[in-house]
Automatic annotation (TrEMBL):
It holds the Pfam family GIY-YIG. NCBIfam families: PRK00558.1-5, uvrC. This is UvrABC system protein C. InterPro entries: GIY-YIG_endonuc, GIY-YIG_endonuc_sf, GIY-YIG_UvrC_Cho, Hlx-hairpin-Hlx_DNA-bd_motif, RuvA_2-like, UVR_dom, UVR_dom_sf, UvrABC_protein_C.
Length: 687
């Protein structure tokens, strides 16, 4: 590992022009590629105090052994060169939006002499035209089944095709009219190719000619009294309509746009794209990538229009995604030209999707990229006409953007759950935690606490439990924190100490108590929560191997003081700081840094996020109760018990305000006089 100071360029030698730079390791391999409007200003950031760098950026500059740059004439050229180098060198520290290998697609092998249509997952191959991706595998198969009613092309594998060619009789699909049976010469390869070209044209969005042709044929068949043929053509039109209905109409006809949304947490970002063509959703794609470098501060909540990290991430995505799409389309067009020349037919009969189909004239994003004008100019040059980048503010496009964002959030959540839910991943995570913290055994039981409040009011805490890497919700606890010194305020450090004391004081008392006797309940308020199923109450004496507090060194020190006070020596204590996902160990001046793609860090983050969610939900319920009850504080003759009964009976303050004197008088403990006082008070306070 090289010290960045050993290869730092001499002061004043880096130009101030726009350009692209490469970091290389000691073997000469390119490990990172970046661009800059001002090379000197950008590269200087990498050679500042390394403690101020993001962990992954810090690892990159220590892995590198040299840096070099190339000056270009404009920012557009810098974008183009950056993309070219990323594709060429595949640097390990760059964010890469590779083709998604999980979404199912409809594929047509146009490169074969007798092409076939089939369901496909995986990397793209030469000589195959792809349509999709589809959200579900069944959607591909249903679409293919409907298409073969109208375009009866081959769908069988090569072995099946050769077998029936040898037998001299078609398969079942040939008998029922869903394949024109080129295997037995029912149609010639050229006639079959015309069917394939029609299907490709239809899937590229040229639906009007197919519909018009079917309607004309149906009318002609009816006029010739060929009613069976007319009925079959009518059913074919119904199949066409069903395929088109599957592509939801979301925007006005003629609208060609891509909508892109990003959801992120501290470690990863999910990018979701909806492709809208002619007002219909024609495709949906998604990626989950690790957040690195300058993109590491992207928000985990609803994106903000001025967020620089998200803007930079979107710029990176737009260039990679659309440059890849344009390059792939150029290759497919070249294959079409070559195939058309070999067959001696006009290339236009293939009706390929041109660049304006893969790069729409309008791209909607949650925030504008860092250099939106430069990115728009580059995309316009790839498309061959102007491309508009903008943020939708209202109307149908804004509503659809919200839907895309919800899909991105769900995609990120599912990705996290999949990793945590995998047995192998959980085992590896627990082993990595054991190794990183120097524990004697793997932490099969982990507890984590988090504090929630608003400016010191309604302070509550959560305690969540994970066993074998999975949440054990029957053991969750939540606490109401006592106000410090009666001043109405409570700091996080003091709250962490209070929760730790209350949880482990209970543990110590349970250990000292006679196991045959019932344990006396503590004087403080502690609520036991069962979220999954009702289970018999049991003692909370089983200690964790690992206890996590949400926070850094101060919170860990406060919890450790409680451990020392109570004599807890058999539990490992750490703190998990949100900012850089650092793990703080009591007494250590430097945190433990886990690799950002490690299973251990994903599990710890999952536990911390669950504690945060549980604390937030309890805080909201407590604040809601307080706000409902405070509106009745000044009612004469209304004590705490009757106030609670009143709120419980009506369920909300809004319903209580709508109640009459007679309604309130039906509550236990209320007479006409007290009910009238409540109504008068609510009317007075509401006026």
């Amino acid at each position: 590992m090289a010290d960045p100071s050993t290869y730092r360029p001499a002061p004043g030698t880096i130009p101030t022009d726009p350009g692209v730079y490469k970091f290389r390791d000691d073997s000469g391999r390119v490990i990172y590629v970046g661009k800059a409007k001002n090379l000197r200003a950008r590269l200087s950031n990498y050679f500042q105090d390394v403690s101020q760098l993001h962990p992954r950026t810090r690892r990159m500059v220590f892995t590198a052994a040299s840096v070099e740059w190339t000056v270009v004439a404009s920012e557009v050229e810098a974008l183009q060169l950056e993309y070219t180098w990323i594709k060429r060198f595949d640097p390990r520290f760059n964010v890469m939006y590779r083709d998604d290998k999980t979404y199912p697609m409809l594929a047509v092998s146009v490169g074969e002499q007798v092409p076939r249509a089939f369901f496909y997952r995986g990397p793209r191959r030469k000589g195959v035209r792809y349509f999709g991706p589809f959200a579900h595998a069944w959607a591909v198969r249903e679409t293919l089944d409907l298409l073969t009613r109208v375009f009866p092309m081959r769908t069988c594998a090569k072995g099946v095709y050769n077998r029936h060619q040898t037998l001299g009789r078609p398969c079942l699909l040939g008998y029922i009219g869903k394949c024109d049976a080129p295997c037995v010469g029912r149609v010639s390869p050229q006639q079959h190719r015309e069917t394939v070209d029609s299907l490709v044209s239809f899937m590229n969005g040229n639906t009007a000619p197919v519909v018009s042709q079917l309607k004309a044929q149906m009318a002609q068949a009816a006029e010739n009294l060929e009613f069976e043929r007319a009925a079959r053509l009518r059913d074919d039109l119904g199949a066409i309509d069903k395929i088109m209905e599957q592509q939801s109409v979301v925007l006005p006809a003629g609208t060609d746009a891509d909508l892109i949304a990003v959801a992120a947490d501290e470690l990863e970002a999910a990018v979701q794209v909806f492709h809208v063509r002619d007002g219909r959703i024609r495709g949906q794609r998604g990626w989950v990538v690790e957040r690195v470098g300058e993109f590491a501060d992207a928000p985990s909540t609803e994106p903000s229009p001025d967020d620089p990290a998200l803007a930079g991430l979107l710029e990176n995505f737009l260039v990679q995604f659309y440059a890849d799409a344009a390059q792939r389309q150029s290759q497919e067009d070249a294959e079409d030209v070559s195939l058309a020349q070999r067959r001696g037919v006009d290339q236009e009969s293939f009706a390929p999707a041109r660049q304006e189909r893969v790069i729409p004239r309008e791209i909607l994003v949650p925030v504008l990229p860092t250099e939106s004008a430069v990115v728009a100019e580059l995309l316009g040059s790839l498309r061959g006409s102007q491309v508009e980048l903008r943020v939708p503010q209202r109307g149908d496009k804004r509503a659809l953007m919200d839907t895309v964002y919800r899909n991105a959030k769900d995609q990120l959540r599912q990705h996290k759950l999949k990793r945590v839910g995998d047995l192998t991943a959980r085992s590896a995570a627990l082993q990595d935690i054991q190794d990183a913290l120097g524990m004697e055994t793997a932490p099969l039981r982990i507890e984590c606490t988090d504090i929630s409040h608003i400016q010191g009011t309604d302070v509550v805490a959560s305690l969540v439990v994970f066993e074998d890497g999975l949440p054990r919700k029957a053991d969750y606890r939540r606490y109401r924190i006592k106000e410090a010194a009666g001043d109405g305020h409570s700091d996080d450090v003091g709250s962490i100490a209070e929760v730790t004391r209350r949880r482990f004081k209970r543990h110590v008392e349970d250990k000292l108590a006679n196991p045959d006797e019932s344990v006396e309940e503590a004087s403080f308020v502690e609520e036991r929560v069962v979220e999954e199923s009702a289970q018999a109450a049991r003692r909370f004496a089983y200690p964790p191997q690992l206890f996590i507090v949400d926070g850094g060194a101060p919170q860990v020190a406060a919890a450790q003081a409680v451990f020392d006070e109570l004599g807890i020596v058999d539990v490992t204590l750490v703190g998990l700081a949100k900012r850089l996902e650092e793990i703080w160990v009591p007494g250590d001046d430097e945190p433990v840094i886990l690799p950002r793609n490690s299973q251990a860090l994903f599990l710890l983050q999952q536990i911390r996020d669950e504690a945060h969610r549980f604390a937030i939900s309890y805080h909201r319920s407590q604040r809601s109760k307080r706000m409902r009850a405070s509106a009745l504080d000044a009612v004469p003759g209304l004590g705490d018990k009757r106030r609670t009964e009143l709120v419980k009976h009506f369920g909300s303050l809004k319903k209580l305000k709508q109640a009459t004197v007679e309604d309130i008088a039906q509550v236990d403990g209320f007479g006409p006089k007290l009910a009238q006082a409540v109504v008068d008070h609510l009317q007075k306070s509401g006026s």
